[in-house]
Design brief:
seven-stranded mixed β-sheet, 10 helices, alpha/beta, globular
């Protein structure tokens, strides 16, 4: 079937984004077609648009960007057993050139989670990529447990907001960095200590951290090793740690997100219980102009919370 989508036909700046009709692949037997009510913007979207990931993902054009979706199931594949047409769902689909900046998106059935009734489509669309990134960094790779101390860099960012809440729910002591204007919000979300990175060097005020979640890379990552004891861990989502520094701690690795419906359902259940919430800082329409504006904001790295594209 054809769908309206926001696509790129070559790599470049945000002005490459345009509206088009795209023929979707045939629905697989373990796939569902989702009518997209909302999607969200993540840094991978514009990094891919610029061509930075072209070697890793050597795709044909046109490319539909976007790898978060919230919406209603419009059609199910022949072997889909647990999902029905009309159900409200959200997901981080597999990374293909048929992304979610579209009226319809194809999702593998094992990647779906049920959207809680108390959560809007916009709030649900904000979660999958950022929430799963936080979950996997903290628990799958970081092995965070109750009673440990975690330092989460850039707590007010798209990933940081979920990381704070998930770490707090797991019983950890949560320390984060953010500019002054976001301190109250992050404390409300569960941060025990918020450090203003404009005025304070975090490495001088914290120590004996069990896990550092690095969302910044560069100098911030290098300085993070100063607060880790020998048995400390550092998980990065932005760059491979320096080999010499990495030898000084138990774990230091850079990870890449794996889509996971079961983990997303765990986050959905926490949302249904009011223990995790989305902070949607900015909403734009799912149009070429809306996506362009959303990308330009995301590229500043100063968006508060998540940037959502609404299609309702």
């Amino acid at each position: 079937m054809e769908t309206r989508a926001i696509v790129i036909e070559q790599y470049g700046h945000a002005d490459q984004l345009k509206e088009s009709q795209v023929e979707l692949p045939k629905l697989g037997e373990h796939q569902v077609l989702v009518k997209v009510k909302a999607t969200s913007v993540n840094p991978i979207d514009w990094k891919l648009r610029e061509g930075y990931l072209a070697q890793m993902m050597p795709w044909d054009f046109p490319i539909i960007l976007g790898w978060d979706v919230a919406g209603e199931i419009a059609e199910v594949g022949s072997a889909v057993a647990d999902w029905q047409v009309g159900q409200a769902v959200f997901a981080r689909p597999e990374t293909t050139r048929f992304g979610t900046y579209a009226d319809y998106a194809i999702v593998d059935d094992h990647l779906l989670a049920t959207k809680p009734d108390t959560v809007s489509f916009a709030e649900a669309a904000a979660v999958p990529l950022a929430g799963l990134t936080a979950y996997q960094a903290l628990f799958t790779h970081g092995k965070l447990t109750a009673g440990e101390k975690v330092l989460i860099h850039a707590g007010a960012g798209g990933v940081g907001i979920y990381a704070i809440q998930l770490a707090k729910n797991a019983g950890a002591t949560v320390i984060t960095t953010a500019s002054e204007e976001n301190h109250a919000l992050l404390k409300e979300l569960g941060a025990d200590q918020v450090i203003d990175y404009h005025t304070t060097d975090f490495s001088e005020v914290v120590s004996e951290i069990d896990l550092v979640f690095d969302t910044m890379g560069g100098e911030v990552q290098a300085n993070s090793f100063k607060v880790l004891p020998e048995n400390g861990r550092l998980i990065s989502i932005v760059g491979k740690p320096d080999e010499e520094l990495a030898k000084k701690v138990a774990v230091a690795e850079s990870i890449w997100l794996q889509p996971d419906g079961k983990q997303l359902q765990e986050i959905a259940d926490l949302m249904a219980e009011g223990k995790v919430k989305s902070i949607v800082g900015h909403t734009y329409p799912l149009t070429a102009a809306g996506v362009k504006a959303a990308h330009e904001l995301s590229e500043t790295h100063h968006a508060k919370g998540k940037i959502v594209l609404s299609n309702e």
